[in-house]
Design a protein that fits this description.
The complex is a heterodimer of chains A (about 200) and B (about 400).
Chain A: E1 9-12, H1 16-28, E2 34-37, H2 43-50, E3 54-58, H3 64-68, E4 80-82, H4 90-99, E5 101-106, H5 111-159, H6 163-176, H7 181-194
Parallel strand pairs in A: 1-2, 1-3
Antiparallel strand pairs in A: 3-5, 4-5
Helix pairs in contact in A: 1-5, 4-5, 5-6, 5-7, 6-7
Chain B: E1 3-9, H1 16-23, H2 26-29, E2 32-38, H3 42-50, E3 56-60, H4 62-69, E4 78-87, E5 89-93, H5 95-102, H6 112-128, E6 135-138, H7 144-155, E7 165-168, H8 171-179, E8 185-189, H9 192-198, E9 203-207, H10 208-211, E10 216-223, H11 224-229, H12 231-249, H13 254-262, H14 271-279, E11 281-283, E12 290-292, E13 297-298, H15 309-321, H16 329-336, H17 341-348, H18 371-376
Parallel strand pairs in B: 1-2, 1-3, 6-7, 6-8
Antiparallel strand pairs in B: 3-10, 4-10, 4-13, 5-8, 5-9, 11-12
Helix pairs in contact in B: 1-12, 4-16, 6-7, 8-9, 12-17, 13-14, 15-16
The chains are: A alpha/beta (about 200), B alpha/beta (about 400).
């Protein structure tokens, strides 16, 4: 790798959306040589064939152990080093583990260059997690709303309440039992299933 | 006041001591509030322990030694005050490879030397016919699985780095990989051998205890610094996990333990499969053949939980043998210092029994005081040069 050329970065991630977000970020930052690997079956041979300078892998990927093999004496020409090998940058290691990403450098790449790549990966991973979280919350809010609607219907039918009264009953029960209104609604649905 | 602890584990049956310690309140009784964190890779467990996200961890016995020596990774001194298990591995091969090995032997229950020599002939035939080398899966470079496979193969005259391919695979991937023909065999812990047999894609050839009678398999690991700063918490944890291990081994508790471990947040496999390991009664072939062994996996009985520096020395010798580290007196001392029988005694107030000699099916007697001589006595195989040792 020439000093000025863009290092070759391999992204190992089974989440295609996150990998795409990461790749886009790296390209925006001027790293043009980025390859995504989402097939874990022949991970090691893919990596040897690609011969990347940096490997980025998500920490939820069991295939991380497969990469450990690269640290063994091997016939591969270039040997990688783990990001965690450098003890000087504890904060950066902590941030990457928190974000759920790990990186490996292969031979001679300058530490400063890895740092900027890693920082970018961390921020993209965090952004993805936030997105995912929002999506999950929206989904569960939608779910809750459906459940509450159905529970209200049951209360209205069985107790002859108006819609507003049914909702007030749900809410006050939730407050009294220190539970979420969705949970109370769910238990009404479950009970009514059982009593059918 | 309770002490909160984060403990990482990999979903395997030998995490039973930790899981049961929490589920049955042994940790709570010791004033510990333990959160078990299920991990997907040994690399994650090691790294999270090393950087302090975990207070303690379920780890492959060689990993704390590698970490204390700084092999490949950040050098962090780790101690093991308790063995979580001895043994528990098995070597499983595909039905095709099993048939090929069996045509070379007429014994019904061949010993590991016979199978290793048979495998060596299978490998040679394959090479003559221009076939691809056989591929075997193991779980981690610093694992008993790696060392047991290599020990077995080398005894039969196979050079595991030249004549076959050894690849790291996460335990849950083993069965799919053998089913798809990517690998021809593997060495892994419970329950994955049984799952391979149940799916009809593998046959258990040997229990780990056939290769080595007593092999430290998983340990309870903490950072040395943490152990020094928190001696009482550590002792409490060792007691809780030791009591849980005794609970697991009591026959009357097996049903309950099997059901507990089978839950999705722990191992997530059928309770009946967990039961086979707890009973040491394994289905070894798709045709339903059963093999029983009281030594398939040991948790607390037979002083299994006592950390033994001789075991650490043996693991260090394997690292040297397979060129993961050069040999040195200092390295050996560091390795032996990882297995802390003193911390075990301090916590449990019991002696834990004397050091036991290493007993393997082949090779010279192991002398922890003279690893070079031991390694020099191990020939790689008939007609092959001795292994070149990297020395400082």
């Amino acid at each position: 790798m020439g000093a000025e050329s863009s290092p070759k970065i391999a992204i190992v991630d089974e989440s295609p959306i996150r990998a795409a977000i990461l790749e886009e970020g790296l390209r925006e930052a001027g790293y043009t040589d980025v390859v995504r690997i989402d097939e874990m079956q022949s991970l090691l041979s893919r990596i040897y064939a690609l011969d990347p300078d940096v490997i980025v892998i998500d920490l939820e990927n069991p295939s991380r152990d497969i990469l450990e093999q690269m640290f063994q004496v091997s016939r591969a020409v270039r040997r990688p080093i783990a990001m965690f090998v450098d003890q000087s940058d504890a904060a950066s290691i902590q941030a990457s583990v928190d974000a759920g990403v790990s990186a490996y450098i292969v031979d001679g790449l300058k530490k400063e260059r890895l740092k900027s790549i890693l920082d970018l990966c961390i921020s993209r991973f965090n952004a993805f997690a936030k997105l995912q979280d929002e999506l999950d919350r929206t989904k569960s809010a939608l779910e809750d709303r459906k459940v509450i609607e159905r529970a209200k219907g049951i209360l209205m039918r069985l107790k002859g309440l108006t819609e507003d009264e049914a909702y007030v009953l749900l809410r006050s029960t939730a407050m009294r039992e220190k539970k979420k209104i969705g949970e109370i609604a769910q238990s009404i649905l479950t009970a009514s299933e059982l009593l059918k | 006041m309770t002490t909160p602890l984060q403990i990482g584990f990999i979903p395997l049956i030998d995490a039973a001591g930790l899981i049961v310690a929490v589920e049955k309140g042994f940790t709570e009784a010791e004033g510990l509030d333990v959160t078990l964190v299920r991990e997907v890779s040994w690399s994650n467990v090691r790294d999270k322990l090393n950087i302090g996200l975990f207070d303690a961890a379920h780890l492959l016995a060689p990993v704390p030694i590698a970490s204390s020596l700084g092999l490949g990774h950040i050098k962090v001194p780790i101690v093991a005050p308790l063995n979580l298990s001895l043994n528990g591995n098995a070597i499983t091969v595909s039905p095709a490879l099993h048939a090929a090995i069996r045509t070379e032997i007429d014994d019904d229950r061949p010993d590991p030397m016979a199978t290793a020599q048979a495998l060596s002939r299978v490998v040679a035939t394959r090479r003559r016919n221009g076939g691809e080398p056989l591929t075997f899966g193991m779980t981690f470079p610093f694992s008993t699985h790696n060392y047991q496979l290599r020990f077995w193969m080398a005894a039969g005259g196979i050079d595991p780095d030249e004549d076959v391919r050894l690849v790291v695979l996460p335990p849950p991937f083993m069965v799919d990989s053998i089913a798809s023909g990517q690998i021809d065999g593997f060495c892994v812990g419970a329950p994955w051998n049984s799952i391979g047999v149940d799916r009809g894609v593998g046959q258990i050839l040997h229990f780990g205890s056939d290769i080595m009678q007593r092999a430290a398999e998983k340990v309870l690991a903490t950072r040395q610094l943490w152990a020094e700063k928190n001696p009482q918490t550590l002792a409490a944890l060792v007691r809780a996990v030791f009591r849980a291990a005794e609970f697991v081994e009591a026959a009357e508790n097996r049903d309950e333990v099997a059901r507990m471990l089978s839950r999705n947040e722990y191992i997530g496999v059928d309770a009946a499969v967990v039961m086979r390991t707890l009973e040491g009664r394994l289905k070894i072939a798709p045709d339903g053949a059963i093999r029983e062994s009281g030594r398939y996996m040991l948790l607390a009985k037979e002083d299994a939980s006592t950390p033994d520096p001789v075991q650490a020395a043996w693991l260090y010798a394997q690292m040297v043998r397979w060129r993961q580290t050069p040999v040195s007196a200092e390295g050996l001392k560091t390795a032996q210092g990882v297995f802390r029988s003193d911390l075990y005694r301090a916590a449990l107030g019991r002696d834990g029994g004397p050091s036991q000699a290493i007993s393997t099916f082949a090779g010279p007697a192991f002398d922890p005081g003279n690893i070079e001589a031991y390694l020099a006595g191990l020939r790689l195989g008939p007609g092959k040069p001795e292994i070149p040792l990297t020395t400082k």
